[in-house]
Write a structure and sequence with these properties.
single chain, 276 residues, alpha/beta, Rossmann fold, seven-stranded parallel β-sheet, 9 helices, globular
Length: 276
C-alpha cells in the first residue's frame, strides 16, 4: 500500500485522482485550501484518507501538510503537484501581481512541495514525484502565454530533477493533459482585468466571455486518473505522460514543426564556429 499526497483535490483532475487512489486501496492525503471541500473523502474512507488544509503558496502550510502525512501514514510515497489554475491574457495585458501569483502557485508551490518530500524519499531511496503540467506548455496558445510559461518552467525543473534523483531510486513524471471536463475552464479560470482591442482576434477568443469550451472538453477525468496510477506503478514509468488525443496531436504537431524549422535553418546553425 502506497501513500499519495495530492495537492488541489477540491475539484477536477485532483479530485478524480484522489478518488481513484482511494478506490485502488492506497492511502491518500487529500488537500485543499478550504479543507471542508475534501472532508467527505476522509469520511468515506476513514482508514485511508486524510484531509489536510493546504495552500501551496504558504511555506508553513507546506511543511505542516508533509509532517501530517508522515505522522498519519509514516511516509509520502507519491507526491502529485496538481494545485494550480489557468490565466488568460495577451502578454501585454497581463497584470504583474496576478502573473506573480500564478507562478507562485503553479511553479513555486510545486517546487516547495517537492523540496518538502525529498528528504524522506532520499532516505528511503524510493518515491515518485508527479507534476501536472498541460499541453499548453508545448502549444502555447495565444492568450495563454503566462500559464504556458508557468507550466513550461515546471517541466524544465522536472527534467533536471529527473537526472538528479533517478540514481536515488526516485521517479519523476510530468503529465500533459489536453482538455478534460473539469472546472479548469470554468470557475477556476482567471484572466486579466482589461483587454486591448488590437488582440481581439488572437488572444480575445480565449477570454472567458468568448470561450465556449467549458463543459464540452473531450477528456474524462476518471480515465485520466486511472492512467496516472498505471503510469506511476509501472516498472518503467515514463517521464512524459500525455493524456488525451488532443494532447497527443498537439505534441506531435509542435515537435514536427520545430524539427522542420531546425532542418531549414541548419546551414546557419552549424556555420557559427571559429573558422567556418
Amino acid at each position: 500500500m502506497s501513500t499519495w499526497l495530492i495537492t488541489g483535490c477540491s475539484t477536477g483532475l485532483g479530485r478524480a485522482l484522489a478518488e481513484a487512489v482511494l478506490d485502488h486501496g492506497d492511502n491518500a492525503v487529500v488537500t485543499a485550501r478550504d479543507v471542508a471541500n475534501v472532508e467527505d473523502l476522509q469520511e468515506s474512507h476513514p482508514d485511508t484518507a486524510y484531509a489536510v488544509e493546504l495552500d501551496v503558496t504558504d511555506p508553513a502550510q507546506v511543511t505542516r501538510a508533509v509532517e501530517a502525512a508522515h505522522e498519519r501514514f509514516g511516509s509520502v510515497d507519491v507526491l502529485v503537484n496538481n494545485a494550480g489554475y489557468g490565466y488568460r491574457a495577451a502578454v501585454e495585458e497581463g497584470d504583474d501581481s496576478e502573473v506573480r501569483h500564478l507562478f507562485d502557485t503553479n511553479l513555486f508551490g510545486a517546487i516547495s512541495m517537492t523540496k518538502a518530500v525529498l528528504p524522506g524519499m532520499r532516505g528511503r531511496r524510493a518515491g515518485a514525484i508527479v507534476n501536472i503540467s498541460s499541453i499548453g506548455a508545448r502549444v502555447a496558445p495565444p492568450g495563454s502565454g503566462y500559464y504556458a510559461a508557468s507550466k513550461a518552467a515546471l517541466e524544465a525543473v522536472s527534467a533536471s530533477l529527473l537526472k538528479e534523483v533517478t540514481p536515488l531510486g526516485i521517479k519523476v513524471m510530468v503529465v500533459e493533459p489536453g482538455g478534460f471536463r473539469t472546472d479548469f475552464a470554468g470557475r477556476s479560470l482567471q484572466q486579466s482585468p482589461g483587454s486591448i482591442a488590437d488582440y481581439a482576434e488572437t488572444a480575445g477568443p480565449r477570454r472567458k466571455e468568448n470561450d465556449r469550451v467549458h463543459g464540452t472538453q473531450p477528456g474524462d477525468p476518471v480515465r485520466a486518473a486511472q492512467a496516472m496510477i498505471a503510469a506511476v506503478e509501472a516498472a518503467d514509468s515514463p517521464f512524459m505522460l500525455l493524456l488525451g488525443q488532443d494532447s497527443l496531436d498537439g505534441f506531435r504537431a509542435v515537435a514536427n514543426g520545430l524539427s522542420a524549422e531546425v532542418d531549414a535553418w541548419e546551414h546557419l546553425t552549424v556555420g557559427t564556429g571559429f573558422g567556418e
